[in-house]
């Protein structure tokens, strides 16, 4: 097979199976070896965590670029277009390059299949191979690699990074890497490599010993938020470690933790940036769909929070803001049917006005996918566009409107706002 258009590549990727019968790395390692192990030809930083790994990856990418490094970035999911998943110096991979690397991977698969006719890759493996191949061909100085799910068995875990990062550990994907938070911590600690430092963010005390023991066994130096570096929410966001103190523009503290982890990770590299350059790089980083403020009066925030920990953090921030604004909180939420739907809805206050919606996507929860008590308590609107517009119009100057539950819904809203902005111009 030979691809000629980027959309053909994307359609093909989505037609592939999502999982192998066994959750090991033998398939992806075989293809990478055939291609000359491109993942070993670049320096990498490996980022995992239940929440915050995408934000941390974006911040690290900005810092590396500011330091003059040719920087690759592999993240998921995307908000606007598939090409966001693979970036070079902050620019999405072009359609032509996407087709080029996909054809190279496809040629490798064809050759392997002549020996082993049953061999194939799943969707995420194919994407990871394309990313490593692209970064190698472009001769990146560094590539920031965000895991898909977990750590030890994640398809990105074929690298020996300069630094590993674990942002948070919480409940998500329990059926795959759980069921307990201890299981999830063990899985995520799989990104820790021998004699390579690991940065730990907001890690619950009950699982911290699991991760520290893994680091000890690998002789990996640990840098821990709250012990080796701190982030505080004063008039501005303040980062401190043993050698520097840097303030950033105000952000939710949970986002500040991601900034702190990124700055600490960067400080361990053999690269130099002044405090003002670090400040500038962070302040100008836009993380799509993550605490993204569309407007301030009323305050409209888009956040792709899709698990218990992320939604809890978002609501904490919104309720804190509500005390200052004395307004109403409205929440438009769409979730995937395989998420912890009931536990998420336990987090809302009786005073929160919550509205359920959906999008045209196979995994998106429809009305009957929500628990009966959720359906009884909150209104459901099948048309997200109408419900979003109505909530936006109903919001007064001091109110807060949250759009959350999935990056897919956030992406739809951002696309709509982008289209409307173009129309006005």
Automatic annotation (TrEMBL):
PROSITE patterns: FOLYLPOLYGLU_SYNT_1, FOLYLPOLYGLU_SYNT_2. Residues 47-249 form the Mur ligase central domain. The keyword Ligase applies. GO terms for cellular component: cytoplasm. Pfam families: Mur_ligase_C, Mur_ligase_M. The keyword Magnesium applies. Keywords: ATP-binding, Ligase, Magnesium, Metal-binding, Nucleotide-binding. It catalyses: (6S)-5,6,7,8-tetrahydrofolyl-(gamma-L-Glu)(n) + L-glutamate + ATP = (6S)-5,6,7,8-tetrahydrofolyl-(gamma-L-Glu)(n+1) + ADP + phosphate + H(+). InterPro entries: Folylpolyglutamate_synth, Folylpolyglutamate_synth_CS, Mur-like_cat_sf, Mur_ligase_C, Mur_ligase_C_dom_sf, Mur_ligase_cen. Its EC number is 6.3.2.17. GO terms for molecular function: ATP binding; dihydrofolate synthase activity; metal ion binding; tetrahydrofolylpolyglutamate synthase activity. Residues 289-407 form the Mur ligase C-terminal domain. Belongs to the folylpolyglutamate synthase family. This is tetrahydrofolate synthase.
